[in-house]
Design a protein that fits this description.
Layout (H helix, E strand, L loop, with lengths): L11 E6 L8 H12 L3 E7 L8 E4 L2 E6 L7 H25 L4 E5 L6 H11 L2 E6 L3 H9 L4 H16 L2 E4 L2 H9 L8 E3 L24 E6 L8 H14 L5 E6 L5 H11 L5 E5 L3 H10 L2 E4 L5 H5 L3 H8 L4 E4 L2 H7 L3 E4 L4 H12 L2 H19 L1 H16 L23 H13 L3
Parallel strand pairs: 1-2, 1-5, 2-4, 5-6, 6-7, 7-8, 9-10, 9-12, 10-11, 12-13, 13-14
Antiparallel strand pairs: 3-4
Length: about 450
């Protein structure tokens, strides 16, 4: 297939993702394989990781370039982590340019630093820059560190720089689109919503495995990264309330996922006296994940209410829905939009109410079935990746067919140049303006 805009060769995309290796970053992998199937040539730069250690690999037509990573253990070490990642991203971008070439860099945050790579190749080589907005980093910084200090203002400035360099931005939901337009000052015509729809070929309903329950009658399942803002402490406190205050000893909690808080959470489970009732499975394979989630009677999302989580769409919610699982979560804006009637909603950051909602569902099998069936229908009819793939391709058609706006002009008014959408002087003014702002 030959794409519009060049009759001789397909367009070439370089995707850069820093926080997860592919193909384990499911959104990025869905995007990469969708672009390949549509006729694009796709390369990916990402870190190495467990199960993804090969430095150079081709999977399903996607050319993967992996680099070493330094994991931050403190705030100071973030500078080292990001500096190392940026070095490798620049180095490998040049390698991809000479080996395969690219017409656009597709940057997936966090962090909001990849614009330095994209901006360089845009300014000097006329490449296009696409910002795939996965996380709202100012809110993420505040959720992790609980403060708005000088570093927070730097994070805000980096986000503004990223939007300033971007030809188009891809938002994961309406809240992120609003941020791109209002805080990022992007033309609304240049912001495209592409949700992280689950891949139903991967998420298969299989028979439950009783061994996951550890001999107990019920299982409550969770999958996700174990970080500070994921609120696993609320889930453990809910487990303590169920076991000791309510007196229920027939429920096993199974938590699948790794992350920087794993050891602390294991210690907290011991401290709360629920270690025997909680299985920390760690990072698991797809087969193990499906074994756990298909066994769970109720699946939970314990992400605490904060400005970041309230505006973010959690992939785990749609994965639960794809497997027809009833859900309990805190009442967050985008979480409610995603799940609708597939979930019960506890009072924000209230572990006792969270526990009560879990018990409500465990005590009502017909309601569990009703919520699960609603969620699966919603995924199949509206949220699965096949519904989102055309939106991604539409964004790229707009990018390469000259249908993006510049500096408030409508798409029909845009004058194209051989060096990208924005002339160098104008690009520099856009880059410098966020740094001059004191807001």
């Amino acid at each position: 297939m030959v794409l519009a805009g060049d009759p001789f060769r397909p367009k070439r995309i370089l995707i850069i993702v820093e926080n997860l290796p592919v193909p384990f970053d499911r959104r990025v992998w869905n995007e990469a394989t969708t672009l390949v199937k549509a006729g694009y040539e796709v390369s990916v730069i990402c870190p190495v990781g467990h199960g993804a250690s090969a430095r150079r690999e081709v999977i399903d037509g996607v050319h993967i370039y992996r680099h070493p990573i330094v994991e931050a253990r403190s705030v100071a070490f973030y500078f080292v982590e990001y500096a190392v990642a940026l070095f490798w991203e620049f180095f490998l971008a040049w390698r991809v340019l000479f080996e395969r070439g690219f017409d656009a860099i597709h940057a997936c945050n966090p962090p909001d630093l990849i614009f330095l790579v994209g901006g360089f190749f845009k300014l000097f080589l006329g490449k296009k820059f696409v910002f795939d907005h996965h996380d709202i980093n100012p809110e993420l910084f505040e959720a992790k560190f609980g403060k708005r200090n000088f570093l927070y203002r730097i994070v805000v400035a980096l986000e503004r720089c990223t939007f300033a360099v971007a030809d188009i931005s891809i938002a994961t939901n309406h809240s992120y689109r609003t941020i791109a337009v209002e805080r990022g000052k992007m033309d609304p015509n240049n912001v495209f919503i592409v949700r992280s729809g689950p891949n139903l070929e991967r998420l298969k309903i299989v028979p439950p495995d009783p061994s996951v329950r550890k001999g107990r009658a019920y299982c409550v399942g969770y999958v996700g990264v174990l970080g500070a803002q994921e609120g696993i402490n609320y889930l453990l406190e809910a487990a303590r309330h169920i076991v000791y205050d309510v007196g229920r000893h027939d429920i096993q909690f199974c938590i699948a996922g790794g992350g920087p808080e794993l050891e602390r959470l294991r210690a907290l489970a011991v401290e709360l006296g629920v270690a025997d009732y909680v299985t920390f499975a760690g990072r698991v394979s797809d087969d193990e994940l499906l074994r756990i989630l298909n066994t769970a009677d109720v699946c939970v999302n314990s992400d605490e209410w904060n400005p970041m989580n309230d505006k973010s769409t959690m992939n785990k919610i749609m994965e639960y829905m794809a497997l027809a699982k009833p859900i309990v979560q805190f009442d967050l804006t985008e979480g409610r939009f995603t799940a609708l009637d597939a979930s019960l909603y506890a009072k924000p950051n209230d572990s006792v109410d969270f526990a009560a909602k879990i018990l409500d569902l465990l005590g009502d099998e017909s309601r569990r079935k009703q919520l699960g069936e609603f969620g699966r229908r919603r995924v199949i009819d509206q949220l699965a990746w096949p519904h989102e793939a055309p939106k991604l391709l539409g964004a790229y058609r707009a990018l390469f067919e000259g249908k993006v706006a510049v500096h408030g002009q409508s798409r029909g008014q845009v004058t194209r140049t051989d060096r990208g959408d924005i002339l160098p002087g104008s690009l520099m003014r856009r880059l410098l303006s966020p740094l001059a702002s004191r807001k």
